[in-house]
Request: fold
Amino acid sequence: MKNSKPPPHSASLLRELPPIHRLVAAPALHEFGASLPSSLITKTAQEVLDEARRAILNSPEDATPTLPSFDELTQRIAERLHRLEQPSLRGAINATGVVLHTGLGRARLSEAACAAIAEVARGHSLVEIEAESGQRGSRQDHVQKLLRELTGAEEALVLNNCAGAVFLAVSALATGREVIISRGELVEIGGAFRIPDIIRSSGATLVEVGTTNRTRLSDYADAITERTGLILRCHPSNFAIVGFTEEVPTPELAALAHDNSLPFIEDQGNGALFPLDTFGITGVKGSLVESVSAGCDVVTASGDKLLGATQSGILLGKREPIRRIAKHPLARALRVDKLTLAGLEATLRLYRNPEQAQTDIPTLRYLTRQEPELRRMAQSLARGLRRILDKERFAVEVVKESSQVGGGSLPNESLPTLCVRVRCLTDSPTVNDLAKTLRQSAPPIFGRIRSDALLLDPRTLELTEIPLIVAAFQRI
Ligand SMILES: *Cc1c(COP(=O)(O)O)cnc(C)c1O
Reply:
């Protein structure tokens, strides 16, 4: 700043900016002294002061720059300090209708899972100790038996996430060997998780067979050599190939692998525990129970997709390959945390009674919500909004719409729903302003914008969240 030569009017204005020590001593900032270190308050005040200085220096020659008042400056500082006081990772309201919204944390957990996590977080726990003998145990014990009981698998292992599970399975079973996979399954599943990259980085060689839309059993059979390490199937969770297609049924592929003494891995991905048509949810391809009974040696899936539990990578299958995977040195690097295990165990317990799973696990409850409930919720929200919003400026209606499942789980399915549609009738606020204000409210609220209107979808809401949304609109 030393070398810049401000025009004379700016120079005099700069001198009128208050000194930093007066700003930080302003009564409006006193309350922050209790929760934030004074160095952070000073640094924030300095930033605001520097910005005000730059705004004056950069103002065009012919315009008279305005000097912010003392109160304006302290107001700006207070706003920033207020944001610094809030946790960065905080709860939010999902009115997008996307049941497994990756940005909003995928699966919402059941009350039972939340309680189990809180208990294990608050105190010490039996994570790796056996109460009966007092001996050191395995953290896998808490979920292994349940997973075996619920899926019929011989063995189970839980890691940090499904990408890690696939990586470790291929590393443990096929490093230095070839992995055969259909061209139609060389997929990318969000966050740059690409199957070809995973195979390469685990030290195996990719052997592609068939074509994008059709792969036959003979394509796999012809590719088997003495270098083959395993056959891999990956569910294309986030897209669908439709039309002239052909794929080999899983049991046939497993049988081919076994005839050649090779392991067969299926990356099932979505983690539906059993066929979800039991609940009237259509369009979900495959389930863990089906993959296990089809004879897969290893099945991998995410815990926080359709299973509705904590972020985790679930491996199920035959005893020998799963134990080899568990013993791989990298298993420690992908170790699952105790809070994750607590949430997963509590969720799995609910599946012992499928009806209870459907009512208690939000992912399943939201996917199976029917029109009468969606209509009641939408109407209740619309009534609340109409009561407080100015009719000249906002139009509030209940409209027929569709919700997405999200989380790379049901690429083709959308579920009929009823949304509250809010349209802005004047130039200010615009629908984008409205959405931004809601995102910045406490708690942050996310809807979706469609055809210049804000849609609030009750599919992913709890009744208790409706008044919170109304309250956020009230502050607009
Ligand atoms: C979602 C998904 C993954 C990645 O799972 P994360 O738990 O997010 O690591 C891998 N494979 C398939 C088929 C998936 O659907």
Residues 93-102+367-475 form a domain with the Aspartate Aminotransferase, domain 1 fold (CATH 3.90.1150.110). The chain has 18 helices and 13 strands.
